[in-house]
Structure formats: structure tokens, C-alpha cells
What does this fold into?
Amino acid sequence: MGSLKKKQKSNKRYLSEEKKDMISGYLYVSPFFIIFILVGLFPTLFSFYLAFQNWNGFSPMEFAGFDNFRIILTDSLFWKSVYNTIIMGLLGTAPQLVVGIILAFLLNQALLRFKQFYRVTIFMPYITSMVAVALVFSVIFSNQDSSMANYIIGLFGLDPVNWATSEWGTKIAISLMVFWRWVGYNTIIYLAGLQSISSELYEAATIDGASKFQQLRYITMPLLKPFILLTVFFSTVGALQLFSEPTVFLGQSAFTRDEAMTIVMYLYRDAFRLQSFGTASATAIILVIFIAVLAAINLYVTSGIGRKRKRGVSK
It folds into this structure.
């Protein structure tokens, strides 16, 4: 009996220590979950709830059903913001993906000197303050005939452009700002992808008589596809969330003009300028749907490439 009681006491002591370890483990990870609930989960659920309410932030909420979605989808300014977002997204992201691959190839060359300097220089715009970026681009794309942008296009015999007031001038200036800021980020990702490819594959291809173009086509590009898909997805999502560049370039007039109004700017205008949190939340839900559709397409394409690779390896 005495030995049995000792075993029960030892088991209780063991269980109590196990519970203490479990509680301490939960305490260590609890800050993440608390912050996630306060900053991520609660605002998301509350925004979804607000999408079906009429609320200006002060008066009591009134249930509106799908009226907020109807107001948005019948608003010409919303579709203008969608158009602007797509156009500036294409002008700002598509060239940077192509240029990023070219720069990554150049930085990966064995004969290139001062590689670290060039890599840091290319990546610097990504970490540059948006205030500094706005000041630089406001000077480059000023409406004066002597501005740098107007001087360059004047060399080709073109007339000066009012970059901050014209329809396409504003879009081009903002797109170039996006391109300049993010091309280095994509270049570093492509460079990491190139360096992950084993040199033995190129050596074997060279022994088999493959040319540089054939190595690029059949080795480099197929193995670089996951990195390309990753940057395409991130760039597309970033383009749909375009906000900082138009607002800092246009300043106070960004929300009163429609030539550079983006979806997120439309959302911000409804929420914090018109105090219409219901339509702003509905816009946020529509934007999430856009992003989810693009994420699903990206996942489908990526999984398709993965299945093809597995079939090729099995054969």
C-alpha cells in the first residue's frame, strides 16, 4: 500500500509539473495570439460586420443589408479606381519583373566586380523613406518645362507634360515611382533563385554541347519559375493595394481628383473623409475577393507546375 501511495504522489507531482510546463508554454506564445486577435482578427470581423451597416463612427449603427455593395458597384468613381489600379499596376509591375530578371542575371555573373556594392545600390530604393521618394519624384516630374522629365522627353521632340495634373502624366509618374521602388526587391529574389541552381547542371549541359541560350531555356528559366510566380503574385497583390505612391505624389489633392484614385484610396476616402464606414468596409471585402481570386489562380498555376515536375522526375 505504501508503494502504491508513493506512485500516486509521484504521478500527481509529474502531472502538475507537466501542467506547469504547458501553461508556461502557452504564456510564451500568448503575446502573438493576443496581438493577432487585437490587430488582425477583430478588425477583420468588425469590418465584415460594418459592411452591412450604415455608420459614420458616432451615431448608432443601422442595418443596411447589401445596400453598401450596391452603392459601390453602381458608383462610377469606384470603377474608375479599379481602372486606375489595373493600369498603374501593369505599368509599374510588369516592367520591373522583366528588368529584375535582367539585373539578377548581370549581378550573378562571375566576372562582375563590386557585386556587393551593386546589390546594395539596387536594393536601396526599397528601404528609402516614402517622404524622400516623394520629394525626389516631385522635382523630377514637376510641371515646369525645365524639369528633368520634360527635359528628357524634349530631347525626342515631345512637348512638355503637366505630370501632376494630366490623366496619363500622373499615371506614368506614379508607375515609374512604383517601378523604381520595387525593382530592387524583385531583383534580389531572382538573384537568390539563380544562386540556388546547382552549377553541376550547367557543367553537365556544357559537356553535352548545350549553348548558353539552351542552358537559359531548359535549365535556368524552368528552375526560376517558382520565384517568378512568387514575385508576380506579390507584385499583383501590391498593385491592388497601391496607396502610398499616389498620395505622396499628389499630396492634399490626391483624394479630390480621379485620375490617380486607386481602390485603397477610394476605401480611405469613404472611411476617413466621408465618414461612411459601411461603404468603406464593403470596398475592403470586394478588394479581398479580388486578392483571393488572384491567390487562387497563382496557387493553381504553381501546383500545376509542381505536378509536371513530379511527372518528369518519375519518368
In short: Residues 104 and 191 are 5 Å apart (CA to CA). The radius of gyration is 27 Å. The beta strands are 53-54, 62-63. The chain has a mean pLDDT of 84.
